[in-house]
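Archive entry: two folds, one per protein. Generate the first.
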Amino acid sequence: MDKARIHRLILDRLAADLELLQRAAQTAYEAATHEENVAENKYDTLGLEASYLATGQARRAAEIKHSIGLFQTLNLRPFDPQRGIQLSALVVLAAEDGSEQWLFLGPEAAGLKVQLEGEEITVITPRSPLGQALLGKAEGAEITLNIGKGHQHFEVLQVH
């Protein structure tokens, strides 16, 4: 699996998400400032609600811009068994039930998913419990996550 292609897919997805969000924020801003949405009484809150929406969308757009910057400067390193799993690693995990998942350890954008060669690859960060558990591990390592009162067990099948 080509990590450079995955990296490019992640950047493309973040750029598309940013563009969509910026258009939505502009629409919300226009609704908030439109003369027809000036409050006529204390119960008329359409303009205020649009303002809150525009502010939230602008904040999310700033987060995506930050993520794009971090991914643009991310150094894609080959897996080094001496160091174990580090940032930019592509990991295949197997769960107890036999299911497998592909994970890309990135600096931001946790939960973002991209498709490559029929596989869904999910971005996780070192700040997540799973990301923390993977750091420094190698192929064959077993990981246990304590989630609430339960436990989830995984095996590292592959690292790229």
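Generate the second and append.
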Amino acid sequence: MTMDTEMIKYVKNDKFAEFIGLELVSAEPGHAVVRMAVGPHHLNGVGFVQGGAIFTLADYAFAAASNAKGTVTLGINANISYFRTPKGKVLTAEAKEVSSTNRLCSYNVDIYDEDNSLIARLTATGYMKKP
């Protein structure tokens, strides 16, 4: 299956992702990689990467992987678990499809720090709209 370039154009047009500095590294049907260079605006009050920034990174990877299949896919449920405080200045999210039916898809998105330590995992369910 090849990537739907029209759908990826929509993903790349995400103004919030652009605002917080997310970089779409790769996207193909069912798989995507996104990076975020951590800056001062990503930190919470105690100096760690804010959980919402990590969630947004993961959600964007989910959007890229699911929409690369060519059907508008909207998140209908997402749950994130945080495992450790990230180290370094770059976080990477990798989204992988777990299952897909006619209308629903499920993804795991793993978020790694520069040491390649798993810092969080997002599980997401998407609804694929009818064309």
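Annotation attached to the second fold: The domain at 5-128 is CATH 3.10.129.10 (Thiol Ester Dehydrase; Chain A). The helical segments are 5-12, 15-20, 51-67.
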